């Protein structure tokens, strides 16, 4: 925490952000605790249900339904957040819904309730991402958005990393059920932090990317599907998530095979190391994006992924894998800042920022959901090296797309 | 790799895939989840009965107390050295309904990097002599780490304990005395 305080001093040397520091701190805290809460879900749920004597068929079914819900609701959630008058209320409802689904999972792991909890969690998560982005945009002046999103990414990564360690320890010391109780409990500080943000400081127009022009209001997706920079960026995100999502699980499989004694610790390190890196460099990326522009940073993030795939393919030592995960931290930090930032750039003045953000997230989620099966098939047929090299190839295609077709989107200084 | 090969004798048992998995195992698992009121699954010389939800009056029933039988799905497994070996997630039976292998979910952290591995049914000890009630496996983490992953609809590679190359005849499972 001392390191964070030192970084804040350098921030204070710069002109202060336009909204109160109380609101800014509140948003920091909300990002941190929501990341805590979200870490409690994810792959860990399969571990919990296995321990509850669930069959693999039932676990697979519930996870599939949950994934489909999260996918199907991305775009509608974005449209909903654009339409909502108070983004803070949307964030509070989503946080409460996630806490409720964690409580249901802890209280009674029976099939219909778990299914309901997973669907609820999927819906709430779809609202959460655009709600946080909308609050951020509404809270600061346009030229401060990069810096604000950098802070978001820092606290989200710190929250993910700390929660992974905390929840691993909790599951080991107490029980798998205790992890879900902790998850639900962490929604409380998230809500407290959220209500530190002054509602009056969130500009409703800025938070949806400008005023909605009533005269040419056609469909909520107008200005999204015919927006060329957005489409290029969206295609890049699909390729990125296609290549990125299966890499850590594949590497985890190798680590379990090559090192029995330290496998658990090494995999935990592989989860935490990128979060530490992202927590450190995200604010810097946010600030540089306002100085250098978005393009050089975006290309840096897309370049890290193919290098990571090749290193996983050629390196033999599971210990080296942990070092390679620094590259994951670089791309996670870049994309964590650039995804909401570039969409804000290209949707400026449309009033459909969150719908566009939801659309890009939807495309990326499709890439992610296809990728695990694809990588699993290649690994099964031709081995781990082939799987990593194929993923590196997909990542390289994403890098090339950004290099050749992605324009600089930083708005001109007034 | 080499010491692992020497230590563990890996046999390939071709199970009539879909039949054993979709038909046998879930029904077996279901029956085992409430052992107090149902016939024990282990000494099965006949095919597993698919459904025994309630026992109507007049039907023969056996009562198994806690120290005679146990539910095993989701149960944690430890090696004889006390290492965490994951949990039982499924059971592979042959055409007679005799358990041949347990599928264990092994390794990983928070669900990342874990693999499903089939281990020989005979390598599992359900009532270890002495101290705890935990299910133990006569294999070590080192012996399992390089084992191939279990996949549905494919020949099942079963990891066997050293010196236990013969599958145990049915009815001789080390249940509690």
Low-confidence stretches of chain A: 1-16
Overall 3D shape of chain B:
globular
Number of E-state strands of chain B? 8
Share of helix among residues of chain A? over 70%
Radius of gyration of chain B equals 16 Å
Q: Give the helices and strands of chain A as they follow along the chain.
A: HHHHHHHHHHHHHHHHH
CA(first)-CA(last) distance of chain B: 39 Å
Summarize the structure.
Chain A has 414 residues and is mainly alpha-helical. Chain A has helices spanning 2-13, 21-39, 44-51, 56-72, 74-83, 87-107, 111-139, 145-173, 176-185, 187-194, 228-244, 247-258, 263-291, 294-314, 318-346, 353-382, 384-405.
Summary keywords:
heterodimer; A: 414 residues; mainly alpha; 17 helices; 78% helix; 0% strand; globular; disordered N terminus; B: 177 residues; alpha+beta; eight-stranded mixed sheet; 15% helix
Can you describe this structure?
Chain A is 78% helix and 0% strand. Chain A is built from 17 helices and no strands. The radius of gyration of chain A is 21 Å and the shape is globular. Mean pLDDT of chain A is 88; it is low at 1-16. Helices cover 15% and strands 24% of the residues of chain B. Chain B is an alpha+beta fold. Mean pLDDT of chain B is 67; it is low at 1-47 and 164-177. Chain B has 3 helices and 8 strands. Chain B is globular and about 50 Å long. In chain B, strands 1-8-5-4-3-2-7-6 form an 8-stranded mixed sheet. Classes of the chains: A mainly alpha (414), B alpha+beta (177).
